[in-house]
Amino acid sequence: MPRPLSRPTRNQITFFLKGDLKNLQTAYLRIGGKLAQIRDEKLYAALKHTSLEEYAERTRPCGAPRSTATSRSTIGPRKKHRDWFASIRRVSSRA
């Protein structure tokens, strides 16, 4: 039977897990923001796709339903954090 972890070890694991969770949340919002930008600016048409759903189906491993849900799920955060999402666009346009 494994030994119980000491309190400092548990705290350290919790600290790292919270950091990882924050990184995943940020990545999810960035992906949603990018998908929303692709949808809003009809960037999928430049890649010869007729719709965002077709673009997502052919290019995203999670497929169209999940991709469009992800872009819709950022509507609230995009309204609340306009500056942050604007900074994502500025940074990614430089890359």
Kindly describe this structure.
This protein is mostly helical and 95 residues long. The protein has helices at residues 7-40, 52-59, 63-73, 75-80, 82-94.
Question: First CA to last CA: what distance?
Answer: 51 Å
Largest sheet: none
The helix-and-strand class reads mainly alpha
What is the 3D shape? elongated
Compressed to H and E, one letter per element, the order equals HHHHH
User: What proportion strand?
Assistant: under 5%
Number of strands: 0
* Percent helix: over 70%
Summed up, the helix count is 5
Low confidence ranges: none
Brief summary of the model shown:
The chain has helices at 7-40, 52-59, 63-73, 75-80, 82-94. The protein has 95 residues and is mostly helical. Helix 1 packs across helix 3 and helix 2 (52-59) packs across helix 3.
Give the SSE map:
Blueprint: H1 7-40, H2 52-59, H3 63-73, H4 75-80, H5 82-94
Helix pairs in contact: 1-3, 2-3
List keywords for this structure.
single chain; 95 residues; mainly alpha; 76% helix
